[in-house]
UniProtKB/TrEMBL annotation:
Gene Ontology MF annotations: DNA binding
Protein name: Uncharacterized protein
Native species: Kocuria dechangensis
InterPro entries associated with the record: Lambda_DNA-bd_dom_sf (IPR010982)
Alphabetically ordered keywords of this record: Coiled coil
Coiled coil: 5-32
Length: 238
C-alpha cells in the first residue's frame, strides 16, 4: 500500500516504528500541538488534512508541504479549541523541527530542517548570527541542547531505540569548519554527560573542543555560526 493511501494514524504508526519518532516530534514537524497527534492516534480525529505531509515525512524524513491552518471567512487564522473548560485561542507559534529556511535576519538564529532517518537517527541544523552576543544566540544554543537531549533518549513511549552515536559539524564566523566525532562518532550518552558536567554548557563544550584541537583557532574571538548534529545508530557494540 502506498504512503498516499494510508490514513494519518497508519502513517504516524509507521513513523514511530521506522524512525522512532515521538508524538512531540511528529507534531513539531507538522507545526501543530502534540495533543492533535495523540487524538489522531486514538481515533478522535481522522487527520486526513495531514496525510500528504505525513506521507512526505515518512518517505523523505522531512516536510516541505506543511498543512495550512484553518482560516475564517475574513482570511484570518482560525482559533483552535482550548482544553476542557478553557476558551478557544489563537494557535501557538510553535518551533517546528521542519522549518523552511528563511533568509537570516540580523540578530536572529535560523532553525533549519530536521531530517528524521528510518534508522531512528536524526540530522539537526541550526544557524547563528555572525555577531558575538547578538540577540538570538541564546535561543539557538537552547535549541541545540534540547535536540541533543531528545536524541539521547533511549525510549519513546513503548519503543526502545538502539544505542546512538553523534557527530558535530561546526562552522565559525571566520569560515573555519570543524568536525567532532569524525571517527565514527561519539557515544551520545557520554557526550550529554560531559556537556552536563561542563560549566559552559554545550556552547562552552564545543568551543573547548575547538580550542584544544586547533592552535590557530581562538574561540574567544570567533563566534559559532552553524551547528549540525548527526545522530545515527551504533554499528555493532559501542
Amino acid at each position: 500500500m502506498s504512503g498516499e493511501r494510508r490514513s494519518a494514524a497508519e502513517l504516524i504508526a509507521q513513523l514511530k516504528e521506522q524512525a522512532a519518532m515521538s508524538n512531540r516530534e511528529i507534531a513539531a514537524a507538522l507545526g501543530r500541538d502534540p495533543s492533535l497527534v495523540s487524538q489522531i492516534v486514538r481515533g478522535k480525529k481522522s487527520g486526513a488534512h495531514f496525510v500528504r505531509a505525513l506521507s512526505e515525512l515518512a518517505g523523505t524524513g522531512t516536510i516541505t508541504h506543511r498543512p495550512q491552518r484553518r482560516r475564517t471567512k475574513a482570511g484570518a487564522v482560525a482559533n483552535v479549541r482550548g482544553r476542557a473548560g478553557e476558551p478557544a485561542h489563537a494557535p501557538a507559534d510553535l518551533e517546528p523541527n521542519a522549518r523552511y529556511v528563511p533568509v537570516p535576519a540580523r540578530g536572529r538564529y535560523v532553525a533549519e530542517k530536521t531530517h528524521y532517518l528510518r534508522s531512528g537517527g536524526r540530522i539537526y541544523a541550526t544557524q547563528f548570527p555572525k555577531t558575538r552576543g547578538a540577540k538570538g544566540n541564546d535561543a539557538g544554543w537552547q535549541r541545540v541542547a534540547r535536540q541533543l537531549r531528545s536524541a539521547a533518549r533511549r525510549r519513546y513511549g513503548t519503543k526502545e531505540r538502539p544505542p546512538m552515536r553523534v557527530s558535530f559539524d561546526i562552522t565559525f564566523s571566520d569560515g573555519r569548519q570543524m568536525r567532532l566525532g569524525e571517527k565514527g562518532g561519539y557515544d551520545i550518552q557520554k557526550v550529554v554527560a560531559a556537556i552536563t558536567a561542563h560549566a559552559g554548557g554545550i556552547e562552552g563544550w564545543i568551543k573547548d573542543q575547538g580550542r584544544h584541537r586547533y592552535l590557530t583557532l581562538d574561540t574567544s574571538t570567533v563566534a559559532v555560526t552553524g551547528v549540525q548534529i548527526s545522530v545515527t545508530p551504533w554499528q555493532g557494540t559501542p
